[in-house]
Amino acid sequence: MFSGRGPSLRELAVQALSSVERGYDLLAPKFDHTPFRTPDLILDATAEGLRPLGPFGRGLDVCCGTGAGMRVLGPLCADGVTGVDFSAGMLARAREAHPGADWVRADARALPFAEEFDLAVTFGAHGHLLPSERPAVFAGVHRALRPGGLFAFPIGAPPPIGSLQYWALLGFDAVMRVRNAVWRPPFVMYYRTWPLQAVREDLVAAGFSVSMAAMPLLGRRKDGAPRYRLLLARKAA
């Protein structure tokens, strides 16, 4: 599926009926050949938005997967980069692709760092974190950053109500809720659980000051609004 090197429908079905951790362990060898990997265009737009705010010392990629975020952190962070993920399979692929980085297996809801980083990013993991889990994740990132450190991630504009994308995402989330109600272990993956206002409130509650920047490389919607914004959460100096 997706390409000759991507997973088959059977492999995706087995993944979807597993836990999040086990599912990504299974998918890891073919993950970079699926649409689930963060596109380079989003990574490059993030790097463009962060470049004027640097230089940075040490960088952290939260829920790093196979290491796509190194495309952003590598050129921006002078003192090295670390990726953290709870899937051993994804980390194994990341180590192969980026042997110069540090890789740590840990749960994003309980990050094992204290004032070690100047920049933290995350890509593509929002749907795997329930709203009730955001405060623990944001508190852990805040703790991991040095004073004045920055936590940044792109966040997409919600699709217009009634659009094909709106109904597709609504339908996907509904199917996942039914799946998790009748099957164990749950596979947490939702598209509509990180509304901007709620995310901002949780970041502020964790101790960050929050601002946003447009991401011109990713274009604008028909109503003129940016398709994506770069959310910038700063820890007090």
UniProtKB/TrEMBL annotation:
Residues annotated as signal peptide? none
* Taxonomic superkingdom: Bacteria
Q: Does the keyword Hydrolase apply?
A: no
Q: Please indicate if the UniProt record lists Amino-acid biosynthesis as a keyword.
A: no
Q: Cite a single GO MF annotation.
A: methyltransferase activity
Q: Which UniProt keywords apply?
A: Methyltransferase, Transferase
Q: Which residues form the Methyltransferase domain?
A: 60-149
InterPro entries recorded for this chain?
A: Methyltransf_25, SAM-dependent_MTases_sf
Q: Which Gene Ontology BP terms does the record give?
A: methylation
Pfam families recorded = Methyltransf_25
What the entry lists under CDD domains is as follows: AdoMet_MTases (cd02440)
Recorded hits in Gene3D superfamilies, A to Z, give: Vaccinia Virus protein VP39
This chain belongs to the protein called Methyltransferase family protein
